[in-house]
Structure formats: structure tokens, C-alpha cells
Design brief:
The protein is mostly helical. 76% of the residues lie in helices and 1% in strands. The chain has one domain. Helix 1 crosses helix 9, helix 10 packs across helix 11 and helix 12 crosses helix 13. Keywords: Membrane, Transmembrane, Transmembrane helix.
Length: 302
């Protein structure tokens, strides 16, 4: 038998650096598109949203303990952001933080997409297996797309600050009660509400179209960021009404999830994450998957 030896620190470090370099190279390489075949964009409707939500609930019920572990950090971050707004003289950013934080929600749901994918295929579905998916091929594109959503979030906060400064500002508020009173009982406050909601709607619509199926698609296939974005926009373009209904469903669910103190997100976010995966599967069809279905029908026939 060959004798096992312990490498010296220099050789061990070199091996780790080579491994890290390969991982970084795979992450960068994964950002580009390797799968040239474009999926077929399907027409989806309210029945597909209901079916996706139903399957999302089923996945959550089956994977409850593992899922909660994955998403518990999300409401915690929301609570920390709210605490910061209260204690740093940035009360006017409290609502923009709460309303805008879901802009980066698709990133937090990466593990959920993988859990649903594995459950569909009858594979191991614990959180460790899901997080292990974030290898170089997946990690690079996900980080790139996540960075794009983070940029949207920062721009939204800056826009909200400018809207407040031009209406109720620029003197900061130390009391949430006084801020709410001025917001709801003054003309400047209602001007801020109208402009803020209009601007927020634009941000939300853009992020919805960008992330509609892009993140699940990156988990599913090595398509790269350009193809994932192109496909997501194509789905939204073909199904504008359904996309709007899905966005409304997500918005209402997230608002309910913030009560009380963001705790509801521990249930709402997993269901929405799993449902997003199933909506993706209904929205696009790859040729090889369609061929596999056809072959299955042929082999099961008389």
C-alpha cells in the first residue's frame, strides 16, 4: 500500500491557492452564457400562479425545518435595518427600507430554488445540499445578478431620500410619531407619498421583470447572466398581466410577512421562494426537457 504523507505548509498552501484560483475562474467563467439553446417562452396565467403557490406551500411543509434555517437571516437583517433607521436620525428612510428590502429578496431565496429542484428530482433536500450548490458555476452568475439588485436597492434609497428632502425635509425627524403626523396631515407629506409610491412602483416593476425567472434559471442550467436576463424579460413581455398579478401577490405577501417585526417572513419568504421555482418551470421549457417528456409518453404508451 502507498504510504500517506503529510505535506509541508508551503505545498498545502499552494494546493489551496490553486483550488481557490480554479473556483474563482469557474465563477467568472459562469457569468457568460455556455448554453446557446434558448428556452421556449410559455404563456402562463392565474391558474399557473395558483399552482405554483400550492406547490410552494407543499415544499415548505415538506422542508420546513431546513428552509427556516436558510431564511432566518432575512427577517433579522430587516429588523437591524429598521433599528438603524430609528436610532440614527433616518426615520424618513424606515418605509423605503422596508419596502425596498424585498428588491434583494431573490438572492436570499437561492437555496429555496435548489431545494425545490432537488425535491422535484427526488434528491437529497437538506440545507447543506442546497447551499453546496453555490459552486463556481452558480456562484459567479448569482453574485453578479445579486450585485445588480443591490445597486437597484441603493439607488432606490437615494431616490427616496431626495424625495423626502424635496418635500418634508431637509431637517431630520427624531420621532416616528411626528414624522407620520406630518406625512399624513400636510400637503408636502402627501406629495412625498404620491411621488414616492410612483418611483417605488417603477423600481419594483424593473426588478420584478429582471428577476422573474432569472435566478431559478441560473440554478437550473449554465446559461449565464445574459441569457437568464433575456429570458426573464421575455417571459414578462409575453405575460404582462400574469407578471403584474405575480408582483401584486408577492407584494401583499411580503407586507403581511413584516407583521409582527418581520417574523412572518420566516413563513412567507420560503413559500414565495419555492413558488418562484415552480412558476419558472411553467414559464419556460427547454427543448431537451420537452424531448424527455415526449420520450416518457412514448415508453408509457400501449
Amino acid at each position: 500500500m502507498p504510504r500517506e504523507t503529510i505535506g509541508n505548509p508551503l505545498s498545502w498552501s499552494a494546493q489551496r491557492l490553486v483550488g481557490a484560483g480554479r473556483g474563482l475562474g469557474a465563477a467568472v467563467d459562469g457569468i457568460g452564457s455556455h448554453e446557446t439553446t434558448r428556452p421556449e417562452i410559455n404563456e402562463i396565467g392565474m391558474n399557473d400562479i395558483r399552482a405554483a403557490l400550492r406547490k410552494g406551500v407543499e415544499d415548505f411543509a415538506a422542508l420546513r425545518s431546513d428552509v427556516i434555517f436558510v431564511v432566518a437571516l432575512y427577517p433579522l437583517i430587516g429588523f437591524v435595518l429598521a433599528f438603524w433607521a430609528f436610532n440614527s436620525g433616518q426615520v424618513h428612510l424606515l418605509f423605503p427600507l422596508i419596502a425596498g428590502f424585498p428588491l434583494v429578496g431573490p438572492v436570499a431565496a437561492i437555496g429555496l430554488y435548489e431545494m425545490s429542484r432537488r425535491r422535484d428530482q427526488g434528491q437529497e433536500t437538506d440545507w447543506g445540499a442546497a447551499l453546496a450548490t453555490l459552486t463556481g458555476r452558480v456562484l459567479g452568475p448569482v453574485l453578479m445578478l445579486g450585485f445588480l439588485l443591490a445597486v437597484f436597492f441603493v439607488i432606490w434609497l437615494y431616490a427616496a431620500h431626495l424625495i423626502w428632502a424635496a418635500t418634508l425635509g431637509p431637517e431630520p425627524y427624531d420621532s416616528l410619531t411626528v414624522f407620520l403626523r406630518d406625512t399624513l396631515t400636510t400637503g408636502a407629506g402627501w406629495e412625498m407619498i404620491v411621488i414616492g409610491f410612483g418611483t417605488g412602483f417603477i423600481f419594483a416593476a424593473v426588478v420584478l421583470c429582471v428577476s422573474l425567472v432569472s435566478f431559478p434559471m441560473l440554478i437550473d442550467r449554465p446559461v449565464g447572466v445574459p441569457v437568464a436576463l433575456e429570458t426573464s424579460l421575455a417571459v414578462a413581455r409575453r405575460n404582462p398581466r400574469t407578471t403584474a398579478l405575480w408582483g401584486l401577490t408577492v407584494a401583499v405577501a411580503l407586507v403581511l410577512g413584516t407583521i409582527p417585526l418581520f417574523a412572518g417572513l420566516i413563513v412567507v419568504l420560503p413559500i414565495l421562494g419555492h413558488a418562484t421555482w415552480h412558476l419558472y418551470r411553467r414559464a419556460v421549457t427547454f427543448p431537451d426537457r420537452l424531448e424527455g417528456q415526449d420520450q416518457g409518453l412514448q415508453t408509457s404508451g400501449p
